[in-house]
Amino acid sequence: MSVYQVGSACYSTAKAAASAWASSANFTPISIGTNCNAVMRYEVTGTDAAPVVSTQWTRVAGTCSVPASVNITASWQPCNLWSVQDGFQAAWIVAGAWIVAKAVVYLRRAFK
């Protein structure tokens, strides 16, 4: 099962990762020309495995036409945060290095 990362959090589906990303970037104010302001938000549709992210524009001030909706194709990166298994593996590496260092010290003392 793939796990996808957005920021410092992992999500079980690509759609959940896309929704987390979209919610953090929603409602970005944009100036269009000199007399118009619009707000852009993201909408996530599609399946859990293949989400579709599209932009939605809303005019909030002025008189202008807002851009059309645009679909965004993105690939969500796999989750690279450490798990408990990674922690155990790192602990064994540290313990192994410590044991080797102690053995070297012991052998140096033995052959003096």
Describe the structure.
The protein is of the alpha+beta class and 112 residues long. It has helices at 14-25, 84-110; strands at 4-6, 9-11, 28-31, 37-46, 51-61, 71-72. Helices cover 35% and strands 29% of the residues. A four-stranded antiparallel β-sheet has the order 3-4-5-6. The longest helix has 27 residues, at 84-110. The mean pLDDT is 81.
Explain the layout of strands and helices.
Elements: E1 4-6, E2 9-11, H1 14-25, E3 28-31, E4 37-46, E5 51-61, E6 71-72, H2 84-110
Antiparallel strand pairs: 1-2, 3-4, 4-5, 5-6
Residue windows where pLDDT falls under 50 for at least 5 positions: none
- How many β-strand stretches? 6
State the distance separating the first and last CA atoms: 56 Å
How large is the count of helical segments?
A: 2
Q: What Rg, in angstroms, do the CA atoms define? A: 26 Å
Q: Which strand-content bin applies to the residues?
A: 25-35%
Q: Which percent bin holds the helix content?
A: 25-40%
The biggest beta sheet is recorded as:
4 strands, antiparallel
Shape: elongated
Q: Which structural category fits the helices and strands?
A: alpha+beta
Please tell me the overall pLDDT: 81
In sequence order, what are the helices and strands, one letter per element?
Answer: EEHEEEEH
Strand order of the largest sheet: 3-4-5-6
